[in-house]
Amino acid sequence: MTAVAQAEQTYWRELRESEKHVAFAEIANDLDVTAQRITRSIQTFEEAWLADIRDKLPDAVKEGPAAISAMTAIAKSMRMGLRKIISREQRTMYTLGELHVQRELQRQQSIQLVRRDPPSVQQVIELFKVRSQAGIDAFAERSQRFVREAALEAWKVYGDSLTPRQLGQVIGEALDVSGRQSELFSRRLGMESFNMGRDRRARLQYDAIEDVEYSALMDGNVCESCADADGTVTTIDSPTYFKLMPPNHQCRSRKSGFNNCRCMWLYRVRDEVSDLPDPATLFKPPSADGTMRVRTGVEI
């Protein structure tokens, strides 16, 4: 069954003409696989953290509540290791976003696509680091709070007789409470990175693109906000383009809002497309501060 056929059977409305060249099923699978990999990385991170807590438990129990609270702190080295893994997954989704736009443009007009990758933009990599670190820190702080409260409660019940097995059980239950958040965090980062890649590739084909159309087709649990935006047509770099850049921050999907938003901008080519310029001509030389600027003057 083709991706289009799957989309027709799965999603909440019929395909528009502009959507028939989009591999929605393949994109959904890419996003799911990435979210699963990031979630598994977080789970591995939690297991290492729990093992560290168990190693520190005997001494902490003897010293009391203050030591138990300190014991639950997540080491900076653990957070850094997880950030590296997540940043790698973000770059993968960024590349897939570029690839899908290439294919979509080619299906529309058989455009001779750019064969080489766009210039490396350090700001993108730095943004991935910042976004993943912020998410990890927020997730870690929440998890630490759950685990700290559970450990202290267990100490009140068992006192000095608290064993690693007993603590492991209460901590496991505490992590189950917050476990859903890791999946939502993973999905949000994957979709953000994917759409950054789509935007980047579209800019390299700027002269070929007539306008952009907002599609909420892939969100099977489409919310009112995304449904209202569905079908919006505008141009790259317009206020509307940036306001609705997926994942839609106004999304209120039944699966926890923009954490699960799967809307996309679709890039529609001009009726007649001449030979596209070499991608290197789309960029001005770096400015004195090293900032790369595209021909339209928009910083990336």
What would your notes on this structure say?
The protein is mainly alpha-helical and 300 residues long. It has one domain. It has a 3-stranded antiparallel beta sheet with strand order 2-1-3. α2 runs antiparallel to α6 and α4 runs parallel beside α6.
Principal-axis shape equals: elongated
- Residue fraction in strands: 5-15%
Instruction: Return the string of H and E elements.
Output: HHHHHHEHEHE
Helix content: 55-70%
User: How many individual β-strands?
Assistant: 3
Low-confidence blocks of residues: 1-9, 113-117, 273-300
Domains, number: 1
Radius of gyration: 23 Å
Q: Which structural category do the helix and sheet elements fall into?
A: mainly alpha
Note the gap between the termini.
38 Å
Adjacency order of strands in the biggest sheet: 2-1-3
Mean pLDDT: 77
- Specify the number of helices: 8
Task: Let me know the largest β-sheet.
Answer: 3 strands, antiparallel
Write the layout of secondary structure elements.
Blueprint: H1 3-10, H2 24-63, H3 65-71, H4 76-109, H5 122-158, H6 164-204, E1 209-215, H7 224-229, E2 233-234, H8 239-243, E3 264-269
Antiparallel strand pairs: 1-2, 1-3
Helix pairs in contact: 2-3, 2-4, 2-6, 3-5, 4-5, 4-6, 5-6
